[in-house]
Design brief:
By secondary structure, this protein is of the alpha/beta class. 28% of the residues lie in helices and 21% in strands. The strands form 2 sheets. It has a 6-stranded mixed beta sheet with strand order 6-7-8-3-9-10, sandwiched between helices. Strands 2-1-4-5 form a 4-stranded antiparallel beta sheet, covered by helices on one side. α6 crosses α7. It binds adenosine-5'-diphosphate (ADP) and magnesium ion. Magnesium ion binds at residues 90-91, 203-204.
């Protein structure tokens, strides 16, 4: 993982959000079929299944036969969203890609290389804030670069750039305790991006924020992702967030997570607050909701 200082993540219970998804077993039948591409993809999951085994030997199947390819698009950032209900296995999929847990079956590759451990080519932003409280915002940002032996001057240049892009330039010398919830998540995003991972894994990073802050963070993420050449895998259970951020949305089933549908989101010319109530935006939201609920339940 790009972020060697991140402490072991805890499974965070509960996922506060706005439009929660409750997928019905009576939803439309799965339409997704994995068709592996011939070229080497940036990220590939191939028949990945994951079960947790407790001390008594009892298995909880969290992920079942998940396969997808994310292609290399040079000089172009991309946001791929995984949309699924709470507890379906979204965090489990991200943790496996991060190398924090091994799939029970199947394989994960980045640029054709099997994932066996955490690595700098993948960076994760968690729902809960995970910075070092005793380091300043700038020191937190520069921590990974420092471990890599990047010289001080270059570290400073990079931290200036990323502090600027997430709007925290004035808070460089403050400590995490001085930051609001939204600012903390901006710091976490900058701290991950500064290491230039090929794949950025975001696990409901705005789930704990109030709606207004959350909307601001979504816009910021879109702006930042346009200037970076990396792929963001963004997990959420919020339909509106999925449509606003995603270039592609994979719709997941309840646990064990399977991919039911793949939906391409049209490229909206302008992303602003008005977009969320625009007919073309609402149409994609409705399409996702139609895939998630049976008509009788709406
Ligand atoms: N460490 C664990 N041990 C046992 N079961 C777990 C563990 N982590 C998650 N689970 C279970 O696996 C399922 C999927 O969890 P998770 O991936 O966190 O879901 P999501 O992120 O979609 O809410 C849940 O039913 C959860 O209770
Ligand atoms: Mg989760």
């Amino acid at each position: 993982m790009s972020d060697p200082m991140t402490p072991n993540p805890q499974v965070v219970g509960g996922e506060p959000g706005t439009v929660a998804v409750t997928v019905s077993s009576k939803g439309q039948p799965a339409t997704y079929r994995h068709e592996p591409v011939a070229e080497t993809p940036k990220l590939r999951l191939s028949h990945v299944s994951i079960s947790y085994i407790d001390r008594a030997g009892q298995a909880t199947e969290a992920v079942r036969d998940v396969s997808f390819d994310i292609l290399n698009k040079p000089d172009c950032g991309e946001i791929v969203v995984f949309l699924g209900p709470s507890g379906c296995g979204k965090s489990t999929i991200l943790k496996a890609i991060a190398g924090l847990l091994a799939p029970t079956q199947g394989e994960i590759t980045v640029d054709g290389q099997p994932v066996t451990d955490v690595g700098r080519d993948r960076g994760m932003v968690f729902q809960a804030y995970t910075s070092f409280g005793w380091l300043t915002v700038r020191e937190n940002l520069e921590y990974g670069l420092r471990l890599q032996g990047v010289p001080k001057e270059e570290r400073r240049k990079q931290s200036d750039k990323y502090l600027q892009s997430v709007g925290l330039a004035d808070f460089a010398d403050r400590y995490p305790k001085d930051l609001s919830g939204g600012m903390k998540q901006r710091e976490a995003i900058a701290r991950t991006l500064i290491n230039r991972p090929k794949v950025v894994l975001m696990d409901e990073p705005f789930g704990a924020l109030d709606p207004q802050t959350r909307w601001g963070m979504q816009s910021l993420l879109l702006d930042v992702s346009r200037t970076e050449d990396n792929t963001i895998l963004f997990v959420t259970h919020d339909v509106s967030e999925a449509v606003y951020l995603g270039d592609t949305v994979y719709v997941l089933s309840p646990r064990p997570a399977r991919i039911l549908h793949k939906v391409d989101v049209p490229a909206f010319p302008v992303h602003d607050v008005a977009l969320k109530s625009a007919p073309e935006f609402r149409a994609v939201e409705k399409k996702l909701l139609d895939l998630l609920y049976s008509p009788a339940e709406r």
